[in-house]
Amino acid sequence: MKVKKVKCFSVVLLTSLMSGSLFSSQVFASETATSEAVLSETASPEMVTSEAVPSETEDPETVNSDEISQESYAEKNYENVQMNSEPVNESNINKDKDKDGQLTYFKEVNGYIPKVDEVIETEVPTGNGECIGDKVTKSYTDEVDLNAKSVMDTNLDDYSNNGYLEKVKNPNNHPKADSSNTDEDLYGPGNLEVQHWQDGPNEFTTIQNWRILFATDYAINNAVLTVTLPYDNVSVTNVTDWVINRYYPAVTNNNSIYTNYMVPLNNSFDGNIATINFGNIVGYSAFGMIFSKKFDTPQDFSNDLKVTAARVTGTWKSDELTADSKYIKSSKTESSIIWQNEVCPIPIDPDTPDTPDTPDTPDTPDTPDTPDVTENQNRVTSLSNKANSNLIEKNTVKTVKSNNVGTLPKTGESKSTILSVIGGIILLGFGVVTILRKKYSLK
Predict the structure, then answer these.
(1) Residue 150 bridge partners (DSSP)
(2) Strand 109-110 vs strand 164-167: parallel, antiparallel, or unpaired?
(3) Is the pLDDT of residue 411 over 60?
(4) Collapsing DSSP states into helix, strand and coil, what is residue 127?
(5) Do the Cβ atoms of 116 and 138 come closer than 8 Å?
(6) pLDDT digits over 279-289, tens only?
(7) Which of 226, 228, 196, 233 lies closest to 211 in space, CA to CA?
(8) How confident is the model at residue 434 (pLDDT cuts 50, 70, 90)?
(9) Residue 284's domain is classified under what CATH number?
(10) Measured distance CA(383)–CA(360) in Å, rounded
(11) Helix 415-442 vs helix 373-402: angle between axes, to the nearest 10 degrees?
């Protein structure tokens, strides 16, 4: 038996939209902007809405039905992204940027990637003991891998609530959006997303904002948040208090479970990549930070759309987990076994008898000789004469016997029979004498 251990990583493929020049200088200035100043640019505690930037949509009454297109802007420009659409109504028609009568939103990929150890045993007997195959045992590990990504594109419908390419979420933090979905494979053990907004359209903007929301349902050891921005020289603002006390209560109807603050041990920048080290964090904790980029002159990003990504790594604290812990796969999750390349002998059906051999063809018997008719006729004549002779003899005896009376003693010989014989001899003698007498008299 051969054993091979493989470490598996799930890979999510997305169309890469990230671009932008990298500069040598960097700014990590949580002191340069207060959370209140940054939050004042957003109009809703739930998410940043399109009201955060000057509205360029027409009044609903001026929208002509002839202007409604058959295919949305998102479908034309993001072919590799799954989407959901819903008809507009009077309350949201201003968000229909492309005037197609639909609000089309990205259907983000689940950014939670459970890690798996895979052990392959080759040529081992299967459960029935009759076959052999490769036994593949998959066991989940406690490695943390959460991912989020979004694109800034003001041409999307309701763009600041749209453009999410990857996100980690579950009904604890997105109950309204997920109340009808029972597929736990679409969820993760917390929330990680990159919210985004800017102060103008793609063709004319002077500031872009990326807000990272991170919450976990379970404790993580050595937790690290890495944010990959499309540029460096950004300012940062810690908005954890807003996330815990305003955002999650708003989206959960004041039923938020995220009440513990994540406090970074240290922060650092390497060009456009920010690293935030938390150390060990407890379950039901949350964190928020805004990364802002201000440009000296208005920028045209219509052909250079910006993307920001976030990733959380670390180790799940497995002693606080069970096999029934929701929205998570860990070392406490039951392993799975699958069989590959099975080889089984072909069974013999006992009910099917062997086919008997074909019997030999018997030899053709010899043709009998033609009987001799003349000889047979002679035989019949001889037998007939014998039968007649016997019949005469029997009649003669019967005649003699009928003339005899009495019997001899117990010897069984009849007196009449003896007398008949003597009489026959006498008669024969007289007959012979008579014949001789006639013969000589003729002479």
Answers:
(1) 164, 308
(2) parallel
(3) no
(4) coil
(5) yes
(6) 999 999 999 99
(7) 196
(8) confident
(9) 2.60.40.1170
(10) 46
(11) 110
Q: Rounded to an integer, what distance in angstroms lies between the CA atom of residue 5 and that of residue 139?
A: 11
| Count: domains in the chain | 1
- Beta-carbon contacts of residue 1 (< 8 Å; ≥ 6 apart): 121, 122, 123, 124
- Spatial separation of the C-alpha atoms in residues 214 and 255, rounded to whole Å: 17
SS3 383: helix
Whose CA is closest to 215, among 283, 164, 166?
283
Q: Give the pairing of strands 220-228 and 102-106.
A: unpaired
Residue 350 domain flag: no
Q: Which two tokens stand for residue 411?
A: 């010897």
In tens, the pLDDT along 241-292 reads: 999 999 999 999 999 999 999 999 999 999 999 999 999 999 999 999 999 9
pLDDT above 60 (res 436): yes
- pLDDT value, residue 431: 77
- C-alpha–C-alpha distance, residues 222 and 313, integer Å: 8
Separation CA 174–CA 247 (nearest Å): 11
Asked, for residue 78, whether it belongs to a domain, the answer is no
Residue written as token pair 């052999």: 132
Residue 417 tokens read as 């029979």
How confident is the model over 354-376, as pLDDT tens digits? 677 777 776 776 766 665 545 55
* 19, part of any domain: no
Nearest to 153 by CA among 99, 210, 111, 196: 196
Amino acid at 273: I
Q: What residue type is assigned to position 346 of the chain?
A: I
What gap in Å lies between CA 97 and CA 117, rounded to an integer?
Answer: 46
| Residue at 423 is within a domain | no
Distance CA 401, CA 416 (A): 6
Residue 230 in tokens: 């499309």
CA 11, chain centre distance (Å): 19
Annotate 55-69 with three-state secondary structure: CCCCCHHHCCHHHCC
DSSP 384-440: HHHHHHHHHHHHHHHHHHHT-----STT---HHHHHHHHHHHHHHHHHHHHHHHHHH
CB atoms within 10 A of CB 426: 10
Q: What is the DSSP letter of 347?
A: P
Q: By residue range, what is the domain housing residue 193?
A: 96-338
Residue 326 CB neighbours (<10 A): 12
For Cα atoms 412, 414, 420, give the angle at the middle one, nearest 5 degrees: 150
Name 399's Cβ contacts closer than 8 Å, sequence gap at least 6: none
- The secondary element (H helix, E strand) that includes residue 85 is strand 83-87
Q: Look at residues 275, 268, 276 and name the one whose alpha carbon lies nearest to residue 28.
A: 268
